[in-house]
Input
Amino acid sequence: MRVLQKKASCNFLVFGLGYDSFMWPALNHGGRTIFLEEDQPWIEQIKKKHPTLESYYLVYDTKRILTYTGVSLQQLHQADELMEIGMGEDCKIVVDPRFSKCKLSIKGLPNEVYNMEWDLILVDASTVYHDEAPGRMGAVYITGLMARNREDGETDMFVHDVDRVVKDKFSKAFLCEGYFRQQEEKIRHSTIPSHRNPSEGPFCP
Output
């Protein structure tokens, strides 16, 4: 990844943990690389091979959201209801994700994840949910919120598997087509600037 090589010794957040994850800290030598993964047994399996990887267990709130908004769990493969939630005004307010009223904002992550200003974020392919499951919707939303909430500067965002309907729709909605830089095969690159200053403009340009 050319962007990571240019930004080496940066703060790099990865949603997803895989057999090749060990290469990211190596490429980001001198920086901090954190992995968030929704499969606890998988974390344990990977850490047996790569014990130095900094990884944390992630629980998506999507099922809880669908339950109390009246959407049946059998409709997990349908993103429309969650997209409607994400279009609400609460989800367009730039704030620390811990205090966001948007129901897509992921709560309960380690404080260092929220407190860090991330230079580079990767929402990788999911190892748990089927193609159209909405688990990673929250990941796409919260990464865009983290990028906008940084003090200044910008964050390079990469979303893997944008050929999947859910990833494609949510990356366009919350990372915004106006911030897209390029797409190579299934990986889409966006650069999102800080929105801390209200004069930075609307949620999407």
Q: What stands out?
A: Confidence is low (pLDDT under 50) at residues 64-77, 128-134. The radius of gyration is 16 Å. The chain is about 30% helix and 20% strand. Residues 126 and 136 are 7 Å apart (CA to CA).
